[in-house]
Write a structure and sequence with these properties.
five-stranded parallel sheet, 39% helix, elongated, Arc Repressor Mutant, subunit A, four-stranded antiparallel sheet, 11 strands, DNA-binding, homodimer
Chain lengths: 231, 231
DNA sequence: GAGATTGCTGTGAGCAATCTGAGAGCGGGT
DNA sequence: ACCCGCTCTCAGATTGCTCACAGCAATCTC
């Protein structure tokens, strides 16, 4: 994460701030703007490594913005943000080259993962690793495959995201609120009990194949993924 | 703790004073205000390193305050204070970035610990250490793990908090009243006998693994955590 | 040493946090 | 339309924590 520059473009201040804060904390250098014209301007000046672009902007749509950028020789990959109900063809038309898209509402962990994936595909230079291996579990993030002691297991999308988040913070207690904020979509508005349920699902799938339980409950605090080495 | 500036924002004078006094005593430089407008003003002038922000304020709520601050370029992490019963619905997004939240009533030691945790996460610059090691005992605060001579032991949340408080004041007698005030939630209204009980629990777990008893009773005064090497 | 004071710790009731199974609702695929 | 897997809720079971209390031990006072 050696000073990767991200340009965030979204007209909703809440979403923009959420993204900016969250990505800054994830180690990116972030510049955030609220409309297409500013985006073009900022991209020209700032030479971002990747652009997060809402397709619905007040002045111009994401497609026009991208076209404009490309015509100016700015080839940074774009991660489009679209509403769930955008038409399928509109979206597929956008995702050419190194580009990708995510539907709103998204989860913060997923955004970060997606950015890493795109950077991995575009600049081989960075030493971004697509395989996350901690303790007895190995995740291949390109293939979305999870191996427990080299045995492939099948996880639902949410189970996968939860495990990935736990594994990217090994030996550190994560509160249920933190897990909810990072793994679930930002508009999720249920109870934290859902985290308990999914931890339960994960344990049922993982524990039979491991030598010791990997997800520990820290009563009154949260959960922790324990990696074997050290302590 | 090299002159870290904390801005405390709470409209209840009791809580505000409690926090201010306690944080000053913990070595922070504190400025305290009672409403959102003053908070914005104070943050602008004072450039705090961290902000303790009650979400329920007379003029504006904590989120508006934060938004306002962020829009002004003030990026200091925020530790939100929320009532226990408004927890479930409104905490979404509070643990994103450097931010975190605590429910009222809280314990003072926990507030201090949380502030240190946040500073640790946000400014890697400062030499905030997540491992607290005094004498034969080592606490890993990220993992909430306690080692006695490198052997992992299991403590309940209250036992953990008590030990952490004792260890952060080594070679210094703490009265039962002080312990009660720092370790238990501020609205606790039981007897000081509870401190005796928990000291007893701790000793039962710690002493079998240490070369000498680490928690000393100063009859008529209080308790002292003794570290071998000076103090 | 006797009585008073202070501290220690086992017991147990009540409670809070967590786990988990069952099932409702939704949506995608056939 | 039907099936199937996934998400999420709910409630009962379970775990184990907190705290009060009471009797005992240690220490102090005279």
């Amino acid at each position: 994460m050696e000073n990767v520059k991200v340009l965030v473009v979204d007209d909703e201040p809440n979403i923009r701030d959420l993204l900016a804060t969250s990505l800054r904390f994830a180690g990116f250098s972030v510049h955030a703007v609220g409309n297409g014209a500013d985006a073009v301007h900022a991209a020209e000046k700032g030479e971002p490594d990747i652009i997060l672009l809402d397709v619905m902007l007040p002045d111009m749509n994401g497609f026009s913005v991208t076209k404009k950028l490309r015509s100016m020789g700015i080839m940074a990959p774009v991660l489009f943000l679209t509403a769930r109900d955008e038409t399928e063809d509109k979206i597929t038309g956008l995702t050419v080259g190194g580009d990708d898209y995510m539907t709103k509402p998204f989860s913060l962990d997923e955004i970060v993962a997606r950015i890493h994936a795109i950077l991995r595909r575009t600049k081989q230079a960075t030493i971004e690793e697509s395989v996350l291996e901690v303790g007895e579990i190995k995740i291949n993030q390109d293939a979305h495959e999870v191996f427990v002691n080299d045995e492939l297991i099948d996880l639902s999308p949410t189970e996968y995201k939860l495990l990935r988040f736990l594994m990217s913070n090994p030996n550190r207690v994560l509160t249920k609120a933190q897990i909810l904020d990072h793994v679930w979509e930002y508009d999720f508005n249920g109870e934290m009990g859902i985290v308990e349920s999914y931890v339960s699902y994960l344990r049922k799938k993982l524990d039979p194949l491991t030598t010791e339980p990997l997800i520990q409950t820290k009563r009154g605090v949260g959960y922790m993924y324990k990696s074997a080495k050290n302590g």
